[in-house]
Amino acid sequence: MLILVINSGSSSLKYQVRDVEAGEVLLEGLVERIGLPQGDAPAAVPDHGAALEIVAARLHEVLGDRQVDAVGHRVVHGGERFAEPVLINNEVTRAIERLNPLAPLHNPAAVLGIRAITEKWPHLPQVAVFDTAYHRTLPEKAWRYAVPDWLYTHHGIRRYGFHGTSHQYVAGRAAALLGEPVDEFNGVILHLGNGASATAVKGGASVDTSMGFTPLEGLVMGTRSGDIDPSILVFLGRQGMDADALDDLLNRESGLLGLGGSNDMRTLVEAAEAPAAEAPDAGADDGAVPGSGVDPVRAQRALEVAAYRLAKYVGAYHVAVGGAQAVVFTAGIGENSSPFRALVCEQLGALGIELDPELNAIRSKEARTISTRGSRIPVLVIPTNEEQAIAEATAELVQA
Ligand code: ADP
To answer: Which residue has the higher pLDDT, 254 or 287?
Structure first.
């Protein structure tokens, strides 16, 4: 089966055509600047319909007469309703649209993508795969915030969790690697990309996760703060910062970028590894790594804060799952940054975790173990593949 996987943003449309059985990508691409004027000229791609025409032309060019069998959409927010991928009809599209207030940047874009496909290929089956769905198994004690009830009943304020498609896929692969049925698998999954989240998996199901009402809560991320004392917002509000400025501050100016001066893990690790003799005092700006402009002291500090936060979550989730059988690293940083993995695992000695430096240093696209034989809990690296997961879920629903 050929599945077109669509990840629709407000001004971009990312697409892949996958052969599900072969696990192969036949083509992929990105249409950008949708609806954005270019200087004085009108937008080259005025809307998602026009973006789809570009995709259609590429499909024709690469696939010739082969047709895609269905479309799988990545949808960020499924609210409380969607616990699984669903076949899309008008009512489902409207339900996704009703969740716009909970994901104002993402869900409206997904709806635009769905409607553009419906208009162009009305008979093509479409499936929505939700980032929140895997976390619908969270027990109430994990999804409730300790605030008055009306915040939940009137505004839907609760923990939803995100990155679910990735966490579920990786949990499945981890169980397979351990030779364990997935519904007996207990583990901690660490999805560390630009956005980052940890999930506690018990009996194959998500029982807690670090992102909350929005993808801002939890770990230190590329540009997001993760957990902070909520009173900081109150304090800054009283200083006159408005909601948009606070949103920017915590979502786009914080995290590794705010602490270390870069949101790129490679840059930070290189800067922090600069010879100590050259390291300036905190705050000084000479001695920065040539080319990166990043101060080694700030880079090191950012890595330490991020790794410490992550290690605390691993400890907490080891408890939440009643004893993890594995700690699993995935996504851009988790799959590639051996120095960051080492920094995290160094702090997990109390759990009997012991990294094997040689295994950790291996660069590979394969799922693998990076802990010693004696490590009480195995540490795994498992490449995530959200597009393949979306394509598989789509194929399964369409064939059913
Ligand atoms: P997204 O959340 O945008 O999908 P990714 O999963 O692609 O993000 O992860 C992006 C992060 O992965 C960046 O911080 C980047 O520095 C890091 N990363 C990517 N490749 C490497 C690498 N080879 N070594 C270290 N970090 C890497």
So the answer is: 254
